[in-house]
Amino acid sequence: MEASRDDGEAVALGADTLSADAASDGLLVARCRTGDEDAWRELVDRFSRYVYAICVQAFRLPEHDAEDVYQEVFARVYEKLDTLREDDAFRPWIGQLTRRLCIDRKRSGSREEPADAVPETAADDVLGELEEAFDVHEALAALPDNCQEILDRFFARDESYRTIGDALELPAGTIASRISRCLTKLRDHWEETGPSTRPESR
Amino acid sequence: MSAYDIAQLSRLIGMLPPAPADWVQAAQELPRARRELDTIVERAEADQAFREGVVADLETALRAEGIEPTRPLLEELRRRVSE
What we know:
The complex is a heterodimer of chains A (202) and B (83). Chain A has helices spanning 5-14, 21-33, 37-58, 63-80, 90-110, 120-140, 145-156, 161-168, 172-193, 198-201. Chain A is an all-alpha fold.
């Protein structure tokens, strides 16, 4: 097994970012290695938003560049999964790979348009927040389906009360109170299970 | 944990919007796309006219096999049929 640059960087970043969910990431990665295509689909689904957010929020790549980097990330993950030294470190590994490809893309783009460069330190600040956001989304998955959906639609998909009401067949007037109740459930769950070091590290 | 209030959790949920559905689908179909790409390359190695057609229009070659021609797949196909 060849040790790659991605591996080394992932381990360096991974020390303080591994969560209880890392174990399930490891199981999923192990299934992918056996050629389990359902596991691959699940792996992409689990990390799709994270990779996308790094591209468009941390590095503010334009849409076409973000799409190229997004596809390149998953292509490299698919090719290099066997080089990952610790399956449980998958998240920092894919995060670091995405970061590096975004930097490469920004640098190649900035040769043509220097004003478009984003300082890497600014991107790193956003990356820290995305780590927290990932943890919150993992916590969200533990809530009842109706809570997951309404919170995701309102906050992540930016849908209006009317759109949500139509989709979920709920009176628009009840959406706000449901969102509030679901947020309270999420906070309660988060306080019981969330990574205990996060607030102090902010 | 009390440092996480409702507003903060709301903001963090909003930081991870979904990627465009067609991006996700293309990434999820990578295993099949790689198999189809292998088939294209094998055929190109055996059939010079087919190979020339692939080299001339990589995107069409991939689409003909039902593969979304993402940049990594196009680059890999280009590299492999040029070897």
